[in-house]
Amino acid sequence: MAKRSPPAPLSATRRRTLAGAFGFTRLIVELGVLSSFAFSLALFIAAIAQAYVTIRAALGELGEAETTKSLIVSAVEQADTLLVGVALLIISFGLQALFVGRVQNVPAWLHIESFDDLKQKLIGIVIVALAVNFFSVALEWKGGTDILVYGAAIASVILAVGAYSVVLTRQGLARDHQAAPHDPPGPADGSGRA
């Protein structure tokens, strides 16, 4: 069998061209990071403003059953808005960490090492957001069977996303197991005798 010769090294001009193309790609990703962060910030500001308006309007009518129900619905809707804002913030941090460089001064749970880490974090947020959304609809439900169809649709999405999460986790564990160094063969007592 003939030996293959190693590939010829890239010329300096070609290396600069490839580095420039990669640098441009990082710029595009950075624009995505900034836009995701801007939407997240806008949603947080909108949630704060909505909370202010809702609470201010309810102050004169506190203690009434309808006011309490309105506050509960508004609080659940605000939680939904905040969860979407958090998801966008995680996307922003994740893309920054994966394509540009690690983000400093963030909690340990937000350190993202791979694209699978980013997907897992987002899956959790999506499931909670769907559950909160259903809770919001259930609070305003007036009767009838239409909520069953809506609930079944959300449940099927949560099940599909959950199954995908399990598959992702198993693939990650299998990859980690293959990458881990194997122990040298020998008896379990450590004597080195066969």
What does this structure look like?
There is one protein chain. By secondary structure, the protein is mainly α. The protein has helices at residues 12-58, 65-100, 115-139, 146-179. It is elongated and about 85 Å long.
Which features does this protein show?
194 residues, mainly alpha, 73% helix, elongated, disordered C terminus
Reconstruct the topology from this structure.
Elements (H helix, E strand, L loop, with lengths): L11 H47 L6 H36 L14 H25 L6 H34 L15
Helix pairs in contact: 1-2, 2-3, 3-4
Instruction: Give the H and E element order.
Output: HHHH
N→C terminal distance: 36 Å
* Tally of DSSP β-strands: 0
Radius of gyration: 26 Å
Percent of residues in beta strands? Answer: under 5%
What would a concise description of this structure say?
By secondary structure, this protein is an all-alpha fold. It has four helices and no strands. α1 (12-58) packs antiparallel against α2.
